[in-house]
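Please fill in the sequence for the structure shown.

STRUCTURE ENCODING:
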């Protein structure tokens, strides 16, 4: 989930940088001056944007993919406690481990 969120955030950030690069092409003659004076503020701003976009995608992933996880786990636990032949091997293995 973290890797997926980081990948999506990196893709979004790359798209934003590409769009900004296209829109700010008129600043190309001043590239050296901008990089010389404002490199670290630009890097910190990009890092802050990446962290915020990552947090957004992580929250969306948690909301969508971990929905009702507790209820699902309670159902699995109930099924393991029944003497059903399908889950008997797993129940025996869990009982031995305890």
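FILLED IN BY: designer on duty
SEQUENCE:
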């Amino acid at each position: 989930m973290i890797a997926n969120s980081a990948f999506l955030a990196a893709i979004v950030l790359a798209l934003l940088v590409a769009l900004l690069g296209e829109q700010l092409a008129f600043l190309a003659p001043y590239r050296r001056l901008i990089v010389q004076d404002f490199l670290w503020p630009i890097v910190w701003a990009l890092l802050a944007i990446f962290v915020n976009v990552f947090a957004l995608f992580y929250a969306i992933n948690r909301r969508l993919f971990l929905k009702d996880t507790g209820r699902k786990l309670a159902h699995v636990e109930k099924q393991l406690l029944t003497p059903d032949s399908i889950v008997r091997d797993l129940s025996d293995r869990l009982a031995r481990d305890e």
